Fold:
Amino acid sequence: MIQRPTEADIATLADGLGMTLPQASGAEILAIIDAHLSGFDTVMAQPDPDWPVAAYDRSAPMRPEPADNPHNAWAWRMVVQGAATGPLQGCTVALKDTILLAGAPMSNGSKLFDGHVADMDATVVTRMLDAGATILGKAQCEDFCVSGGSHTSAFGPVHNPRRLGYSAGGSSSGSGALVASGAVDMAIGGDQGGSIRIPAAYCGINGMKPSWGLVPYTGAASIETSLDHLGPMTRTVAENARLLTVIAGDDGADPRQCNFGGGDYTALLEAGVQGLRIGVLTEGFDWPEMDERVRNSVLAGIGRLQAFGAIVEPVSVPLHKDGRAFTAPVEIEGLFGQIFQANGVGAQGRGPYSPAFMAAQAGWRQNADALHDLVKIAVLAGAYMTRLDQGRSYARAHALRARLAAAYNAALAQHDVLVMPTLPMIAQPLPPPDASLALSFQRSSEMVCNTAQFDLTGHPALSTPCGLVDGLPVGLMIVGRMFDEANIYRAAAALERSAHWTDC
Structure:
């Protein structure tokens, strides 16, 4: 039975809420509260629900030895062998350590979750296992995913396989490094501001942030419901399209979804780009952070598509520049509200919710100093703005989201895809352990120029490698119409065929 409040409890709560209690006796107030809470008693007296767990054998999870983890990209090793047949048969997969895998710890890059073991499988886990994949473990990620660099995990920095001591990108840092190093064939990353595409660009792999709501987020740690995306990270375009085909489609549980059934995203891989209309987003090249060598590498990649018959022309979306900032109220206030006030899940969806995860998340109040300093500052900023303007900035940002989406849609009405650099720079050195807070913040945010806008609007966006600068990869980002991932893959596959990116 749920513990009932006392009159003193109610008086304290009312005072904290700035509320005068009704003119009634304490006994009357408590009796009405008791009537409300009787339903809670009934709910908690029921047998535990059957949490979704795929019926496949799984080994015991273990932390890898340093010798077996040269880039510090693995968080946990655990083998789960999927179905004997299926489109992913023979493929090995890593999961970003924000994704629930029953029986495995889930850290979210933070020591706040020490001791937490998942009690359910995310929808994407079940779908991959049913398709024949073999899961090899959980990939490191950044502390609460609040970094585009790979230096904020509570378990140490993740190194770029292309050059040790350099950032692998974040926040899906381990996912990018494991795929790029060949440790796995595929990985699932998460993206709220660029966190699939940043490591894809830094590490030289393909990373797709699908249309918002295409891939069910059920069973993954959130930052903000309206920004959350899960997506595939692979070495080749075809593998990426194949994995998206498996994981896409409504699961009947995720409130982000709208009964969209997915499709065959491999269908246009061999179609070529003859006649494909490609808009080169001029604002995507116009950043103070832009490395001219990156600009030239991306333009050379676009030129190869033009040589294959694509119709290439410049297009301008002036609001793209301000769109970089439009995400801030949604991400910062959403982070504070959804994670640090609503125990990581909010209260608007139908679930399933994981009580074990919610309990672990709620523990931050007793262990806030376990958070990385940059996470602490983000939480403070969110708490301050939530108190200061009671959601006005958040609401305004979402109104601007619609305006920004309309601007991209207008450009995409004239072009099949838009292209630009994924990032304005190549991978940067990891900050040293004694780095100043200012340098740590710089390395976590300096690359987020072109990525976050499409988390806010929900448009699908793929980073695909197009060349090398100083021996480090350059990513070209291809953006499409909502739920038109197939045309993005069409362009990316043609670019992949035009030349091997390491030769460019």
Remarks:
- The CA atoms of residues 98 and 221 lie 5 Å apart.
